[in-house]
């Protein structure tokens, strides 16, 4: 399972990249706004900065919701760097745009996916990645993991090549469950990635090892 970081914060991207386990980055308009990246020129430069840090796929989301607008924006984004993946919302014009980008050899990430039916449509259109939002499904008392599992089953049975990118991941447990249920990629905040490190027995064991070493090596 590939690890992407879900942020537009350059420091956090660098920190995750330095671990040597980062395969890519996803962003969205909310995450860009959170970093104060405003205006087309600044947004384009920011994507270039991200691509300079990480040697992996970087999802850049279109703002347009009409077919012509998405095509124009997506082509501009894709021309920025070979690692850019154009992120397109799961709407009717979005599916049409993904089909267009597929024909043109431009890679896509279909975002805001909340059902297996949507996942089938995106795969048919040739999306490179599919982003089911598991945290937001959990937020309304449904089970985001059930969706990942069901899409993984459908894609395996049908032989679809679209990669399942578990998104809206909030916790380390979401990452573990995504791996169990067949996600190809997980995109998550830095806190969830670092949360995977934590276990009290690791801390207790390390403290004991160091104490024993110090005692044995006392001058
Ligand atoms: O990748 C989509 C993600 O950014 C949404 O996460 O936590 O806003 O639901 P969240």
List keywords for this structure.
219 residues; alpha/beta; globular; binds SN-glycerol-3-phosphate
Structure description:
54% of the residues lie in helices and 17% in strands. The protein has 219 residues and is of the alpha/beta class. Strand 7, helix 9 and strand 8 form a beta-alpha-beta unit. Helix 4 packs across helix 5 and helix 6 crosses helix 8. The longest helix has 17 residues. Bound molecules: SN-glycerol-3-phosphate. The site of SN-glycerol-3-phosphate (G3P) has 11 residues, from helix 7.
The number of helical runs is 11
Calculate the terminal CA-CA distance, rounded to whole Å: 48 Å
Bound molecules: SN-glycerol-3-phosphate
Percentage beta strand:
15-25%
Structural class comes to alpha/beta
Q: Report the average pLDDT across residues.
A: 98
Largest sheet: 8 strands, parallel, barrel
Uncertain residue segments:
none
One letter per element, helices H and strands E, the order comes to: EHEHHEHEHEHEHHEHEHH
Evaluate the radius of gyration.
20 Å
C-alpha geometry: globular
Find the count of extended strands (DSSP E, 2+ residues).
8
Main sheet: strand order: 1-2-3-4-5-6-7-8
What helical percentage do the residues reach? 40-55%
């Amino acid at each position: 399972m590939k690890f992407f970081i879900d942020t537009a914060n350059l420091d956090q991207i660098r920190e995750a990249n330095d671990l040597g386990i980062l395969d890519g980055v996803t962003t969205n308009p909310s995450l860009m706004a959170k970093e104060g990246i405003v205006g087309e020129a600044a947004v384009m430069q920011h994507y270039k900065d991200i691509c300079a840090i990480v040697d992996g796929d970087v999802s850049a989301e279109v703002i347009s919701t009409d077919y012509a607008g998405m095509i124009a924006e997506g082509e501009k984004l894709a021309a920025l760097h070979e690692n850019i993946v154009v992120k397109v919302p799961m709407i009717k014009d979005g599916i049409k745009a993904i089909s267009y980008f597929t024909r043109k050899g431009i890679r896509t990430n279909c975002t805001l996916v909340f059902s297996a039916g949507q996942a089938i449509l995106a795969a048919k259109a040739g999306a490179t990645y599919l982003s089911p939002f598991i945290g937001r499904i959990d937020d309304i008392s449904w089970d985001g993991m059930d969706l990942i599992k069901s899409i993984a089953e459908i894609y395996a049975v049908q032989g679809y090549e679209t990669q399942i990118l578990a998104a809206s991941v909030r916790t380390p447990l979401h990452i573990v469950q995504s791996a169990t249920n067949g996600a190809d990629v997980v995109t998550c905040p830095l806190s969830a990635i670092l949360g995977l490190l934590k276990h009290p027995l690791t801390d207790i064991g390390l403290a004991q090892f160091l104490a024993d070493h110090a005692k044995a090596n006392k001058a």
